[in-house]
Amino acid sequence: MAEQQDSIGVRRARLDSLKIYEISEKELDLLEKGSGDSMILNCSISLFSIFLSFFTVLLTVDFFYDDKDDLIVKFLIFLCLTIICFLGSLVCFIIWFKNRGDFKKTVTEIKNRMDPERLPSTDEDAIEIRD
Known about the structure:
Blueprint: H1 25-33, H2 37-60, H3 69-99, H4 102-111
Helix pairs in contact: 2-3
Keywords: Membrane, Transmembrane, Transmembrane helix
Transmembrane segments: 40-65, 71-97
C-alpha cells in the first residue's frame, strides 16, 4: 500500500529587499520593555488633577469659622496633601520631559546604522580589487 502524503500549497511573495539591523543586548532590552514614558505622564496628570481637587477644597471651605482644633488639623491635612500632590505631579512631569525621546532616539540610532541605499554601479564605474 502506498503512503499517502498530505501536502499544503505554500505561496510566497518576493521582497525587493530585506534590511537586517544588528542591535546590542541593551537596545534589545529597551525595545522589549517598551517606552514607559506614557505611564509617568499619566501619573503626573492624575496627581495634578488630585492637586486641583484639594486646592479647590482649600479655596472654598472655611476652616477657620470656629476656633476648634480639629478644623485646624483638617486644614493642615488638606494643605499637606495639596502640596504633596503638586510636588509629585511636578516631579513626574520633569522625569517624563527629560526621558520622552529616549525610546525614539534608540530606534533612530539603530536605523541610522544602515548604509544609505546605493545605486547599482555600471561597468564603467566598476573597480577590480585583487589581494
